[in-house]
Amino acid sequence: MMASANRLKVMSWVGREVLPHEADLRAWLRRTLKPEDLEDVVQEAYCKIGGLDDVGHIRAGRAYLFTTARMIVLERIRRSR
User: Fold this and answer.
1) CA 17/CA 13 separation, integer angstroms
2) Would the CA dihedral through 17, 21, 26, 32 be positive or negative?
3) ∠ CA 14-47-79 to the nearest 5 degrees?
4) Which residues contact 38 (CB under 8 A, 6 or more apart)?
5) Termini Cα distance of the chain
6) Do 65 and 21 meet the contact criterion of CB atoms below 8 Å apart?
7) Rg of the chain's alpha carbons, rounded to an integer?
8) How many CA atoms lie within 13 A of 57 on its CB side?
9) Cβ distance 38 to 26 under 8 Å?
10) In the chain, which ranges are E strands?
11) What is the pTM of this model?
């Protein structure tokens, strides 16, 4: 039961603190990524953030979203080399 309560807290936090910044994230990513890669990065960022057990340590949802997306892009670059 506790896990589902935590999951609801995380999902609520994502909706409140992360989703409002999706358009800005997409605009930022659009400068460097192809459209199909942009979609993948956005979805992967949501999966990583949504999969967190707790978000109490995160002070700024926008910054966390952008940092998560940047790390995904960097990892994709590393893998492609």
Assistant:
1) 6
2) negative
3) 135
4) 26, 29, 30
5) 44
6) yes
7) 13
8) 4
9) yes
10) none
11) 0.91
